[in-house]
Amino acid sequence: MSVRVLHLHSTFSLGGKEARAVRLMNAFGASAEHVVLSAVPGALGARDAIDRGMAVRFPGSDEAPSLAGRPGLARYRQLARYMTGFDLVLSYNWGSMDGVMAHRLHARGMGLPPLVHHEDGFNADELARQKRSRILFRRLALGSAYRTVVPSARLERIARIDWGRPAARIRRIPNGVPLERYAGQPEPDAIPGFRRASGDVVVGTMAGLRAVKNLPRLVRMFARSGQGGRLVIVGEGPERDAVLAAARAEGVADRLLLPGFLPDAARYVGHFDIFALSSDSEQFPISLVEAMAAGLPVVATEVGDVASMVAPGNRRYIVPPEDEPGLAEALGRLVASRDLRHRLGSANRQIAWGRYGEAAMIGAYRTLYEEAMGRPGALS
């Protein structure tokens, strides 16, 4: 009998946490049936990455309670009643926290299934500091969660110290990628509109075009690095016009390519010579793991676990986000030296292949979910 899993997502647009959730769904195959609710109606872009034939439903408001709305006891009862039809509840980030609170209030009285909560980072409104009201809400709501799962050491500390989660109730599982897919050459036409001219050094990134990714900063880094080359930003989102405006202001619009969202980074990330990350906030970015697996050197803002993820020699190119001149200088040094790029990229590849394999990640999640349900082998 297959496991019935309810997913409570802040959004199901294709980003890091959604890509991971989809990979787990695909890995569990016919052993599970999935129902996905999104707190942002219509934000379901990650649905296209789910394998065909998978038992996955996306019920509308006429079938399932909404994750969005004013907190209230009636809403929480409604959410809790909906959970009773499942074997496991998986919640993701702040946008799912009303569902977590519903579970906290009614887990015993309604005999609700176990809930595992996943946290991958913060939105733009909590970049400087967490909101106290949310800290207190998490402290209360997470009380019935079987485990809180985080990908980074920084989030593990926050869950323990700020949210009051006992160390035994936190599980850190680093993000992983299918390493073998990054071993070969990229596909020639995988990036629409991309052509490499002789002597070009290509700086690239994969990111949703959202304010927290601060891609105008990346444009400025590129423009002020003192070198030529091309900048490729793979992704889509509301900040597209801001990125284009920054490129025009810096005089590099003719060297910027925005091909939009492209699935399956293994097909194209090898076209980059340097991976650049300009975010104001990250934890354990999957895009960085993908770039390292492909053997790329990295210039990035010093956020989350980024500095500890890359090879030791690459850490001098991880710079505080407020130091834009330092970021531009670091990028310029890598653009100027092919030997340096090769040396750091090789070291990063070795780290990724030794630590960040997808099989280990999937195995850790499978074990956790089966443990929560008390059903060993249920997701195999």
For this entry, give a set of tags:
380 residues, alpha/beta, Rossmann fold, 2 domains, seven-stranded parallel beta sheet, six-stranded parallel beta sheet, 13 strands
Explained architecture:
The structure is a single chain. This protein has a seven-stranded parallel beta sheet with strand order 3-2-1-4-5-6-7, sandwiched between helices. Strands 10-9-8-11-12-13 form a six-stranded parallel beta sheet, with helices on both faces. The protein is built from twelve helices and 13 strands. The chain starts with a strand and ends in a 7-residue tail after the last helix. Helix 3 runs parallel beside helix 4 (132-141), helix 6 packs parallel to helix 7 and helix 6 packs across helix 10. The protein has two domains: 3-176 and 358-373, Rossmann fold (3-Layer(aba) Sandwich), CATH 3.40.50.2000; 179-355, Glycogen Phosphorylase B (Rossmann fold, 3-Layer(aba) Sandwich), CATH 3.40.50. The protein has helices at residues 16-28, 73-83, 97-106, 132-141, 153-161, 215-223, 240-250, 286-293, 306-309, 324-336, 338-355, 358-373, and strands at residues 3-9, 32-38, 56-57, 88-92, 115-118, 147-150, 170-172, 202-206, 230-234, 256-260, 274-277, 298-301, 318-319. 35% of the residues lie in helices and 15% in strands. The longest helix has 18 residues, at 338-355. The mean pLDDT is 94. With 380 residues, the chain is an alpha/beta fold.
